[in-house]
Amino acid sequence: MDPLSWFEILARVAQQLLPVWVALVVTYALSIRFKRKLGLYGKLFDSTVGMIGFGIVMFWLFAALFADLIVTHNALSQVSGMRNAVPGEPLGNPGDLYPYYLFGGDALARDVFSRMIMGAREVLRHFGWPGNVRQLENTVRRLALTARSEEITQGDAAAVLGPQSGPEPAVAGLANEKLSESVARHLQRYFDLHGDMLPPPGLYMRLLREVETPLIEIALAATGGNQAKCAELLGINRNTLRKKITDLDIEVTRRRKLM
Question: Fewer CB within a 10 Å sphere, N or C end of the chain?
C-alpha cells in the first residue's frame, strides 16, 4: 500500500472524529436554542472568542468520551517497523488492524493519533470537577484567555486545571499566612506552570478579571446576598456593585449569611 497524502490523512481523521462532530452540532444547537431560557454559560456565547473557546474545550471533552470509537489502534500497542513512522504510513502486514498510522508512529512504534485521543481521556479521567457549571464556564474562559496560540493544547489545559490528585492536605502555618503572601504564592505557582516561557501578554487585567468574580461571589455569600452590606464590605458604591453583578453574570441568592 502507498502512504496516504495529507488530504487523505485529514479525510480519514475527520471520518474517525464523526462522533465528535455530531456531538458538537447537537450541543451548539441545543445551547443556542435554550441558553437564554435556561441561563446556560452566562455571557460565554455573546462573543465569538467565547464560542470558539467553548467549541475547542468541548471538542476534546467529546474526544475523550468517545475515545473508544475514535482510536484506530491500541494506544500502547507496538507494531513492528512503525518506529518513528511518518504520517499516513501504511502497516507492512496489517491483518485485522487499521492499515495506517494516520499521524505516524512514535519512538516506540505506537500510533500517535490513538495516543493523542487516549491522552485526552486520561486528562479528563484524572481531573475531579469539584465545582459546577459555573466552574466549567470559568475554566473555558481561562483557557480561551491564557492559551499561547489559537489552538488550546494539553499543556494549556494542564496549566489552567493544575494538579488534580485530590484535596491537598492542610499545611502547617497557612492559617497565619497573610493575604499578600497567599496571593504571591499562587502567582508564583502560575508563573512556574509556564516553565521557561512567560505568561501571555495582558496579565495584569486578566488577573483583575479572575479575582473580581470570586471576590464578589464570596462577599455576597458572606453577607447572605444583601447587596447593601456587600457593597459596604467591599468599599464600593451599591450601584457599582449591581453593575458588576450584571456584567459578570453573578447569581445573587438571599440566604442566611455565613458565620
Answer: C
- C-alpha dihedral over 103, 106, 109, 115, to 10 degrees? -60
Cell reading at 215: 471576590
Measured from the Cβ of residue 252, the count of other Cβ atoms closer than 10 Å reads 15
- Residue 142 within a domain: no
pLDDT tens digits, one per residue of 97-129: 999 999 999 998 999 999 999 998 888 877 765
DSSP state of 174: G
Q: Domain residues for 30?
A: 6-129
Whether residue 108 is contained in a domain is answered as yes
90 strand-pairing partners = 100
**Cα end-to-end span (Å), the chain:** 72
Single pTM value for the model: 0.50
Tell me which H or E stretch contains 241. helix 238-247
What is d(CA 86, CA 103) in angstroms, rounded to the nearest whole number? 7
Between 1 and 134, name the one with better pLDDT: 1
